[in-house]
Design brief:
The structure is a homodimer. By secondary structure, chain A is of the alpha/beta class. Chain A has nine helices and six strands, in the order E-H-H-H-H-H-E-H-E-H-E-H-E-E-H. In chain A, strands 3-2-1-4-5-6 form a six-stranded parallel sheet, with helices on both faces. In chain A, helix 6 links the parallel strand 2 and strand 3.
């Protein structure tokens, strides 16, 4: 079946995201080293984030709340208020960060929008994602935008059904095997994986749980048009 | 034009919400009184929330971050870490709170779903709103659900256009003049206002800015079916 609809993930597929989280997490490590030199900040923060995921969902506000919780716990409450204010300000800075597109994104979307219907299907905090899209300058490329609280077989199925899209004519393009590739291939759609330089631990998928067919891996978005012809 | 589509706001229209915020805010007042007896906690928190609105948007996570910021500022950083942990836990408790329906909601929606297409159009945090809807037991009543980061003329216009709804056949039902009544009437739709026992200060609209026609005020949702016939 020919491909009619091409959907893109946003964070780390069209614009940089995880590097901002990594940068802030490194700063948190430095900040807490002064108060608790032996703590494994990365591990403790990850534990807190996963414990809070079902309550907070994804996004910068959730990350900020988890950083504060981790800082209070790791320092046994000895972290000074001024440092907590610094953590709050990091969160605000991340929310204000300009949307920095990955290389080749603008040109590729422009080219592909001639022959395909393009969707943005992104996950995370509604307010934050809308604001990033607005600042990206890409909004008019998309025939539709879906911001999901989580990407799984059910949420993709709802999007396709609501939009009257057959899974066989649908391709999802993104950097996350867990969110962009596995559930779409399970639904009978196809997927293209474009790994980003860093991946949040939670998004990893063991190689043996990956689908055998129905998806390809490329290294930059510029390869997408020719890959779609072979998919 | 006959009414075909009836859309409902969620928070404080179908289920209790603002009372949970008020309850937590009263607890914050008590907590901070010990550290800063003369501070006007309500006013300072409101200032912080409004200052953060364009960055955080609506919802419990935003409220929690603003409570922490306010607590740090009002106490000049002397608030103990254990109290900050208490504030974080309040936020989590609010996120876990069962969805408590207002009186008459279940029966009214059931009756109205026979003759109208029902939508839920709610504002706030995506993850939190989806979770509340799931716990409400009302999900199957709605032909569609729209969770918006803000409710204004533009966001309503996009919803109607995406769903192929004519404003003349559309009625919005909600507790907020600012979010549920004014923008919908401006678009040419109709609205029904059902005031809730408390309204967040930010949602108030001066009487002289209210539209003259196109909306009604009722006191409980049970009056809605008969009101629609007169609207």
């Amino acid at each position: 079946m020919p491909i009619k609809v091409v959907a893109f993930d946003g964070d780390d597929t069209l614009w940089h995201n995880e590097t901002h989280f990594n940068f802030t997490q490194a700063a948190l490590r430095d900040l807490l080293r002064g108060h608790a030199p032996n703590a494994d900040v990365d591990a403790r923060l990850f534990e807190t984030e996963i414990a809070n995921l079902s309550l907070y969902g994804y996004g910068i506000k959730s990350f900020t709340l988890s950083m504060i919780e981790t800082a209070l716990e790791i320092t046994d409450g000895t972290i000074p208020a001024s440092d907590l204010k610094v953590i709050l300000d990091w969160g605000k800075r991340m929310l204000r960060e300009p949307t920095e597109l990955l290389e080749g994104v603008r040109e590729t979307l422009l080219g592909m929008s001639q022959n395909h219907q393009l969707l943005l299907i992104t996950k995370g905090d509604l307010f934050d994602q809308e604001s990033k899209l607005a600042r990206s300058g890409l909004a008019e490329r998309f025939a539709g935008v879906e911001i999901l609280s989580d990407k799984n077989v059910d949420s993709y199925r709802r999007v396709l059904s609501r939009r009257g899209i057959d899974a066989g004519e649908f391709v999802m393009v993104g950097n996350s095997l867990r969110s962009d590739v596995v559930p779409v291939v399970q639904l009978g759609g196809r997927a293209v994986h474009i790994p980003y330089e860093v991946t949040w631990q939670h998004e990893h998928v063991p190689e043996d749980e990956l689908p055998k067919h129905g998806w390809r891996r490329i290294s930059t978005i510029a390869e997408l048009p020719s890959t779609l012809e072979e998919l």
